[in-house]
Amino acid sequence: MTSCHYPTPRPERDRMYQHKVSLVVRYFMIPCNICLILLATSTLGFAVLLFLNNYKPPTPPHIPPPDGCRGKLCGFGAVCERDSTDPSKGECVCKKMVCPSVVAPVCGSDSSTYSNECELEKAQCNTQRRIKVMRKGSCALKDPCSEVTCSYGSTCIQSSDGRSAKCMCPLSCENVPKVTVCGSDGLDYASECALNMKACSTNKNIRLQHIGSCDPCRMNRNSLNVLCAYNAQTQKTKTLSPPSACPPGSEPLCASDGRNYNTECLMERTALQKERQLKKVHSGPCKKQEECQEECKFSAVCLLEHGRARCSCEPIRCDDTYTPVCGDDGHTYPNDCERRRAECLTQTTIRSKQQGPC
């Protein structure tokens, strides 16, 4: 073993800096079986470590290559597999599906006939495009449901061989998402499936009127403190306080119905209350020629245009609440406002025969 040599410092300097040399050696954890060369410098006054023989730098930690399949989505039943030579690359591949030899032909949405649904799914993966089962049986066969007319909420179900079909009622709606729908009978149902079950079990022709409750304003319908209107397209209700809640005003205005209103608030609330469209024509009271000179019949309302007033059906504005009314003309109207509008348009008296569809 090679011994370490270093110049011998003066005794007084050795005593002065001995503890510093010891601290440097202990701090760097220098192994004893290697050779050190320590030079005592007169300018710095402490030991300087020059080099270590057989010193090995620490091995850097192993960092695995990035996963090429991480975050990669594959469709139509395919799965991601990493490249064996470069794991940072991933590719969507179809599994080797082993389909049963059962012959249960189905017609796909690509107009191709498959021996069974498994073969259709395999083709869907290989072509990477959606292929749906259009019907059971060969595409060359005529769809048996094309000659069957189902009613009362029933649906056409094909036989296992795809050669015949019959109408069947929905057996259960447990796995169907609950989305409230309005039926043509004026009742709410938890889903369209529930509506069809009711129609099928009662042998009644109940149709889907619209998505959402038939009358979302039901809770406010008999309230004297709230006016409510429903828009089926946006599925939102509009609620306002009645005209009596408007603050008093001292500057009247002339509205499009030829009447005077103290404030625009009073005009807007009256329009919602009477289910008609009202607009401000000008500030100040209406003139004599701007008022309807005769009483409007058949539910028509006064309309002021170009300085002249006349009876019209245009201002009638019905909301989308479905509270069916049977008129004495044998027609079912979505609500009483629609009955009054039909009365105006036909210029005939249509009385309400009963609440509910005819």
UniProtKB/TrEMBL annotation:
Q: Does the keyword Membrane apply?
A: yes
Pfam families, alphabetically?
Answer: Kazal_1, Kazal_2
Q: Which domain of life is it from?
A: Eukaryota
Q: Where is the Kazal-like domain?
A: 93-141, 161-216, 234-288, 305-358
Show which residues constitute the signal peptide.
none
Keywords in alphabetical order: Disulfide bond, Membrane, Transmembrane, Transmembrane helix
Q: Which InterPro entries did the record assign?
A: Fol_N (IPR003645), Kazal_dom (IPR002350), Kazal_dom_sf (IPR036058), Prot_Inhib_GrowthFact_Antg (IPR050653)
Q: Can you name a GO cellular component term?
A: extracellular region
Residue ranges annotated as transmembrane are: 23-52
GO BP terms in the entry: cell differentiation
Its name, as the record gives it, is: Agrin isoform X2
Q: What is the lineage of its organism?
A: Eukaryota, Metazoa, Chordata, Craniata, Vertebrata
